[in-house]
Amino acid sequence: MSKMELRLAGSGGQGVILASVILAEAAVQSGKYTAQSQSYGPEARGGACKAETLISDDPIGFTKVQQPTFLMALTQKALDTYTRALPENCLVLVDEGLTVPENLNGHRVLRLPILRTAKETVGRAQTANVLAVGCINALLGITDMETLKKAASLHIPRGTEEINLKALAEGVKLASAVPGEGNAPAARSEKKKGAKQ
User: Of 13, 17, 171, 178, whose CB is crowded by the most CB atoms within 10 A?
Assistant: First the structure.
């Protein structure tokens, strides 16, 4: 990895900013350079919002995402709003319930049940953002699983550690189950851990 430009999008209240902050924290703890920013639409809660994270092996000059290498969208409005003029090499992750717009033809698009898994498997819909962090890290290989857990624990509300770490693990499982994906170090280490138990 030399440089990743991540854009996470959803609606206000879904926690995409927290997800972005956790990924940035994990990158910093892994010795990488990072820059994180966010913006809301006109309506704070319920409106489209995005959070962006730059991760690099080298010092970062310009701190805004210009050519996203990865984009995640959790709502249709966010997907339609923030996917315009994406580079062709940008990997796109969307929730399974979204309709992929025609402008993403030719892009590598993964559709995963992020919101449904958070609600039905983890048991709390509000953990979808942390579950998404597990997916993203498994797909991109930002850091190892232990570092990711530490980064998440620094930013999630006290008292929610157990359910959020479960969400993180479920996110890794989702990404690892996609053929040809989930081969990042974090995904592999999680598989090994499961095999020993």
Answer: 171
How does pLDDT run across 139-153, given as a tens digit for each residue? 999 999 999 999 999
> Residue 133 — φ and ψ, nearest 5°?
-60, -45
Interatomic CA distance for residues 59 and 32, integer angstroms: 9
Please write down the HEC assignment for all residues of the chain.
CCEEEEEEEEECCCCHHHHHHHHHHHHHHCCCEEEEEEEECCCCCCCEEEEEEEEECCCCCCCCCCCCCEEEECCHHHHHHHCCCCCCCCEEEEECCCCCCHHHCCCEEEEECHHHHHHHHHCCHHHHHHHHHHHHHHHHCCCCHHHHHHHHHHHCCCCCHHHHHHHHHHHHHHHHCCCCCCCCHHHHHHHHHHHHC
- Residues paired with 109 in a beta bridge: 92
Please tell me the distance from the alpha carbon of residue 46 to that of residue 141, in angstroms, as a whole number: 31
Structure confidence at residue 185 as a pLDDT band (50, 70, 90):
very low
Residue 187 lies in domain: 3-196
Q: Which residues are paired to 11 by β-bridges?
A: 48
Residue 37 sits in a domain of what CATH number?
3.40.920.10
The per-residue pLDDT of the chain, averaged, comes to 88
Return the pLDDT at 109.
95
